[in-house]
Automatic annotation (TrEMBL):
It comes from the Bacteria. This is Antitoxin. It comes from Cryobacterium suzukii.
Length: 78
């Protein structure tokens, strides 16, 4: 199920959306916006997981290196 919402976007963002659709890189404005929001949602979930690992395993154990590695990953995940 999906719902329709109205949002205001800066002109340059709408131009980008229209260009992506016009060039055939996306099927619609909505598909590009949905993909971008899903990416942001996954990024936030990944950052939350890194914070949980970092907070939970502060003392020396087998996951210290994993938590440090996860914390060093850029926040703009693809």
């Amino acid at each position: 199920m999906s719902r329709q919402i109205a949002v205001r976007l800066p002109d340059e963002i709408v131009e980008y959306l229209d260009q992506a659709v016009g060039e055939g890189r996306e099927s619609s404005r909505a598909s590009l916006i949905t993909r971008a929001l899903e990416r942001e949602r996954r990024r936030e979930i990944a950052l939350r997981d890194v914070r949980i690992l970092t907070d939970r395993f502060r003392q020396a154990d087998d996951l210290d290196e994993l938590a440090s590695f996860g914390a060093s990953i850029p926040s703009d995940l693809a």
